[in-house]
TrEMBL record:
Belongs to the ABC transporter superfamily. GO terms for molecular function: ATP binding; ATP hydrolysis activity. The lineage of its organism: Bacteria, Bacillati, Actinomycetota, Actinomycetes, Kitasatosporales. It comes from Streptomyces capillispiralis. The keyword Transmembrane does not apply. This is Peptide/nickel transport system ATP-binding protein.
Length: 474
């Protein structure tokens, strides 16, 4: 455990201590998602006839292993939150399957889900709306016990106070109301509520994005500590790559309802293979001023994310990709494990041998996108792709990625409800995007909703001090 843990107030003593799996991806598969889809119908007219659908999540395959943290990143609207709500079963999937500990929970009803609610909890983004202002902290954190009919040893009050100290809050504040706490503290209250029933999997949707930067680090460190102490498994959804890098063992990059790359954290940051991942990475500021000068080319993606109502054909990223060729427009690339532990859905991956070397003519959109790139970035990309291709195939790089720089390529014309369980409150699939979190706090309680924080953060709560810049130590 890192040094930060020593100075935190995290003093946990649960039976899970002894059995907490080592941090990493070596555990058993806890959650397995196959072909997961969520299409929100678009209805119009008096008869509310369906005229289309928002393809929010469109065929996800991944698994989460016990004890690991899977980070999920992507631009706004790519379906991250929908994915989180699907795997916690706050939304009913349109297609695909979700297995938790080997059990198919894809279409379990409210009663069937009840026992599972203990094992899977969710932390929401907004600490201000996820706690009922009329209830005391004791009532909020103790609600899951009542909803599940669980009587902890020593009584609910004692257990709630223990949970408050676990998340770095003063147990004496049991009778206080949410407005008496700072945002950071409220986030901790939400985390305490999520932990009440000793879940196995915690899905945190943007757990720190509403917080002041200085408080983000504390909450991230608290989550980290709790994972180590309690052997938790996390799926952490965030758009901030620095946060994701800090907390994750593996990272899934989403674009327009699909996973385009799924890899171990270090591999992903060292050698991203999907051009979209590369572009996302290039947008992360380099904190070290000495390194800022070097390789500072930014890949500026042109335009907005296309509409999920009618996503582009083939590879969904082709309308914004500087490497896109005809095959990208026509054929969807499968998510393939091109390197051990690194799955990528791309015909022309970075840092790897080209998957469609015969297809060398850039699309018009690709040429436009490439204008925004620094020459050096393109050259470097071509060079590394060619070199790796040579290494992998043991032969000459020939007409692989090298042919795909704008300088050498020829032009060519071408053209892209929820099942609201106790916790979901509102979350009706067809009508409310992210309302689950803003809804009634009690409702979230059973599902495990909570989360957020801000400045101040007085009573030396857990996870103080460290910034998310601790890089490799997680
Ligand atoms: N209940 C709903 N009804 C219709 N469309 C929805 C609903 N919920 C989400 N969407 C749409 O699905 C797409 C994915 O939304 P989602 O909130 O999952 O994305 P996200 O990646 O989490 O974005 P953000 O980071 O902004 O929250 C968006 O286009 C969104 O408008």
């Amino acid at each position: 455990m890192s040094e930060k843990s020593k100075d935190t107030a995290v003093t946990v003593s649960t039976p899970s201590d002894a059995t907490a799996p080592a941090k990493g991806s070596g555990g058993e598969v806890l959650l397995k998602v196959t072909g997961l889809q969520k299409h929100f119908p678009i209805k119009k007219g008096l008869l509310q006839r369906q005229v289309g659908a928002v393809h929010a999540v469109d065929g996800l395959d991944f698994e989460v292993r016990a004890g690991e943290t899977l980070g999920v990143v992507g631009e706004s609207g790519c379906g991250k939150s929908t994915m989180g709500r699907l795997i916690t079963r706050l939304l009913e999937p349109t297609g695909g399957t979700i297995e938790f500990e080997g059990k198919d929970i894809t279409h379990l009803g409210v009663a069937g889900m009840r026992p599972m609610r203990r094992d899977v909890q969710m932390i929401f983004q907004d600490p201000y709306s996820s706690l009922n202002p009329r209830h005391t902290i004791g009532t909020i954190v103790g609600a899951p016990f009542k909803l599940q009919g669980v009587e902890p040893e020593g009584g609910i009050k004692k257990e709630v106070q223990r949970l408050l100290s676990v998340v770095g809050l003063n147990p004496e504040h049991y009778n206080r109301y949410p407005h008496e706490f700072s945002g950071g503290q409220r986030q901790r209250i939400g985390i305490a509520r999520a932990l009440a029933l000793s879940p196995k999997l915690v899905v945190a949707d943007e757990p720190v994005s509403a917080l002041d930067v200085s408080i983000q680090a504390q909450v991230v460190n608290l989550l980290d500590d709790l994972q180590q102490e309690l052997g938790l498994t996390y799926v952490i959804i965030a758009h901030d790559l620095s946060v994701v890098r800090h907390v994750s063992d593996r990272i899934a990059v989403m674009y327009l309802g699909k996973i385009v790359e799924l890899a171990d954290r270090d591999a992903l940051y060292k050698a991203p293979m999907h051009p979209y991942t590369k572009a996302l990475m290039s947008a992360v500021p380099i904190p070290d001023p000495k390194r800022r000068g070097a390789k500072s080319e930014r890949i500026l993606l042109q335009g907005d994310v296309p509409s999920p109502i009618s996503p582009p054909s083939g590879c969904r990223f082709h309308t914004r990709c500087w490497k896109a060729t005809e095959i990208c427009r026509t054929t969807e690339p499968p998510l393939l494990e091109l390197r051990p532990g690194q799955r990528v859905a791309c015909h022309h991956p970075e840092n790897f041998e080209d998957q469609a070397p015969q297809d060398t003519v850039l699309l018009t959109a690709a040429k436009e996108a490439s204008e925004l790139l620094g020459e050096t970035a393109l050259e470097e990309s071509a060079e590394t792709s060619a070199a790796v291709a040579a290494e992998v195939s043991g032969g000459a790089p020939e007409a692989t990625g090298t042919a795909k720089t704008p300088a050498t390529a020829d032009a060519e014309e071408a053209e892209a409800a929820a099942e609201a369980e106790a916790g979901s409150a509102d979350a009706d699939s067809d009508s409310d995007a992210g309302s689950g979190e803003s809804a009634d706090a009690d409702a979230d309680a059973e599902a495990g909703g909570s989360a957020d924080a801000d400045a101040a953060e007085p009573e030396g709560s857990g996870g103080t001090g460290k910034t998310p810049g601790k890089s490799s130590d997680k």
